[in-house]
Design brief:
The complex is a heterodimer of chains A (296) and B (359). Chain A is mostly helical and 296 residues long. Chain A has helices spanning 2-32, 39-57, 61-89, 95-121, 145-167, 169-179, 181-186, 191-213, 224-238, 243-263, 269-283, and strands at residues 135-138, 141-144. Chain B has a domain at 33-246. Helices cover 70% and strands 1% of the residues of chain B. The chains are: A mainly alpha (296), B mainly alpha (359).
């Protein structure tokens, strides 16, 4: 019983961060329809950002969130402006071809990021050590301080995003574009601006999640590939473009992963997840947490 | 038009010229064993990518899981040889059989998905294969990988001391894969696949059994990938889960075709000739460059090419040609003996709705 509770707690705590970077992906994927194959590598970039700030300036990842967030936002804006917009501006290109172009271009960005990191940091795992080292024991369940704090940060950042989407003008423009992109542009919302902002904010959330994740998760240049699939699993489970769905699904994904790791085998934790993903895709492509019908 | 120009304008003529050129390379151009190995690997991945082109290029179902078939070909051959001491050629044939059976089984589940969902499902499945192969190490050799026994010069066991033989086998493989995709493209199946690529609803409304056509397309496209895997295994004599099913192989097969031009007959050929040597030449294990440098250059080249033309190199050529009067294209295709159709039949067949040229 304690093992089960322990498994669930670990799953939920790591799931909060999955939820955060997945809500970043759902913002991008749900609104701009860009399949960002480099998403996992932006998590890795955030993690290396935290490691670098800690190693060179002694800055705790909790403060490092601010510079990492700003940098991720800028990188997101550049990637959108230079790469994604380009595929849409080629003369005579069809929507499908543009999407395939974005797919391969972001894939190339992913290869570029992970191998630049490999060149500069080498293949061995890096970690931020000694930050938030305490371990709490509640009724026989162990909770690491780093995991708890990063979960709480993920929750707070997510709530801020949610409030921003509900209350600010940009947020309303984004939600209007999700609901009906043509109507939104008819009432004067510039879709290009909405796309650029959601792409950059999506990458920013991902960078923040990576920065916080670095407090307890060692990072290597190839960590991103796993996060990419996790993010897509989560986004699909939560329903495309559904921010709250993505966060809740993140918790679920964390739990599935931990349960497989504990009750089946540690090295098979992703198999359980990927198979669950394919099942969800086949059985409920509109997402298990969404009431909406799937749209192709 | 000169006789030579005419020859080079037809797919068969150009294909023959290219084949003769490629097959004769070791006689006058390839001098070192390193260049020979780069050329052999180029041809092997070209074959896999040509297979990919059938379902993903013509059919529009972008697969990031063709490494499943590549890996199954490699592992079936290797396991039968190492564990059951079967003849290598039997292993190659069985590798294809296993890959086709798996293609039908996996396709039955994943081909119900559209667009990006199919891509993601195939990508997740190839990673599942990689993890499972690493996990069941008692049978597969695990993360350490499998090494073929050294047999010396034994042509009856697919083992040759002279590496040029592997080069010619790879040439034959790529040529067969090219002819196979060419035949598919010209067939009823190819027409149906392209109709699905353009608009699945419209294709179904016109009587195309979309699911069945896609399933057949996937099964056909698994064959060159599996053969490429088996030949790769016999040539390199070593395989591990990552170089069989890993994300790098999974994406490389697709990226080769995308860079050359997905859905174009010559796309994978051009893509492979550019990308595979690039990656091999800068490989860190053979040079002074730091680890990762080769893939940084690789990624930059892919970025630049697709930034200039997101539809791949073949589309650059076609776009320059478009302003010419369409006199040649107006003739009914395929009625004169030296086939007058240009290399890219997709753009030249006016009756097929295609989104490739933005129509």
């Amino acid at each position: 019983m304690t093992t089960l509770v322990q498994t669930l707690v670990s799953g939920i705590l790591v799931g909060g961060l999955y939820g955060l970077f997945s809500s970043g992906l759902t913002l991008i994927f749900g609104i701009t329809r860009v399949i960002n194959f480099a998403h996992g590598d932006f998590v890795t970039l955030g993690m290396y950002g935290a490691v670098l700030l800690f190693a060179s300036l002694g800055l705790s990842p909790l403060i490092g969130i601010i510079p990492v967030a700003i940098l991720s936002f800028l990188i997101g804006a550049i990637v959108y402006r230079v790469i994604v917009r380009r595929t849409l501006s080629v003369k005579g290109i069809s929507a499908i071809d543009a999407q395939h172009g974005q797919l391969v271009l972001t894939l190339a960005v992913s290869i570029l990021i992970s191998n630049l990191l490999l060149m500069f940091f080498g293949p061995s795992p890096r970690a931020v050590q000694g930050v938030l080292p305490a371990v709490y024991e509640v009724f026989g369940v162990y909770i690491q301080q780093a995991r708890l704090v990063s979960f709480l940060i993920a929750l707070v950042v997510f709530l801020l995003l949610y409030i921003a989407l509900q209350r600010t003008l940009y947020g309303k423009a984004i939600r209007a574009t999700v609901d009906d992109r043509d109507m939104a542009s008819m009432v004067g919302i510039d879709p290009n601006k909405v796309y650029a902002v959601s792409f950059s904010v999506g990458i920013m959330l991902t960078g923040i999640a990576g920065c916080v994740l670095a407090t307890y998760y060692p990072v290597t240049p190839t960590t991103g590939a796993g996060f990419l699939i996790i993010a897509f699993v989560t986004v699909v489970m939560g329903g495309l473009g559904n921010i709250v769905g993505a966060f809740v699904a993140g918790l679920l994904v964390g739990i599935i992963q931990q349960v497989t790791a504990i009750y089946v085998a540690v090295d098979l934790q992703d198999v359980g997840l990927f198979l669950a993903f394919v099942l969800v895709l086949v059985l409920r492509p509109q997402g298990i947490l969404s009431g909406r019908k799937a749209s192709a | 038009m000169t006789a030579l120009g005419k020859l080079l304008r037809s797919t068969g003529g150009l294909g023959t010229v290219v084949l003769v050129l490629v097959a004769s390379l070791p006689l006058w151009f390839i001098q070192s064993s390193f260049v020979l190995s780069v050329a052999t690997l180029t041809l092997i991945f070209m074959a896999a990518s040509l297979g990919w082109n059938v379902i993903s290029g013509f059919g529009g179902q972008i697969s990031f899981g063709h490494s499943i078939f590549f890996g199954l070909g490699a592992y079936t051959t290797a396991l039968l040889q190492v564990r059951y001491h079967l003849n290598a050629y039997v292993g190659v044939v069985l590798g294809v059989v296993v890959a086709v059976v798996l293609a039908v089984l996996l396709g039955a589940v994943t081909l119900r998905l559209r667009g990006i969902y199919f891509s993601l499902a195939t990508f997740a499945l190839t990673l599942v294969f990689a993890i499972l192969t690493g996990h069941y190490e008692g049978f597969t050799g695990g993360e350490v990988g499998l090494t073929l026994p050294l047999l010396g010069d034994a042509p009856g066991q697919f083992s040759f001391d002279n590496k040029v033989v592997f080069y010619w086998i790879a040439t034959l493989l790529a040529a067969l894969a090219f002819v196979a995709t060419w035949l598919v493209l010209r067939s009823r199946l190819g027409l149906q696949l392209r109709a699905i690529q353009a608009d699945q609803e419209a294709a179904q409304a016109s009587g195309v059994l979309a699911f069945r056509v896609k399933l057949v397309g996937l099964a056909i496209s698994a064959v060159p990938a599996a053969l490429a895997g088996s030949v790769y295994m016999q040539y390199v004599a070593f395989i591990d889960p990552d170089s069989a099913f890993g994300a790098t192989v999974a994406t490389q097969i697709a990226v080769i075709a995308f860079v050359g031009g997905a859905g174009k007959l010559w796309g994978p050929v051009i893509g492979a000739v550019i990308l595979v040597p690039l990656q091999q030449l800068l490989n860190s294990s053979l040079s002074a460059y730091p680890a990762g440098f080769n893939l940084v250059v690789y990624a930059l080249v892919v970025l630049v090419i697709l930034w200039i033309e997101p539809r791949g190199i073949m589309s650059m050529r076609i776009r320059r040609r478009t302003p010419r009067p369409p006199a040649r294209d107006a003739a009914p295709p395929g009625d004169s003996v030296p086939d007058p159709r240009p290399v890219d039949a997709v753009s030249a067949t006016p009756s097929v709705p295609t989104s490739r040229n933005g129509s």
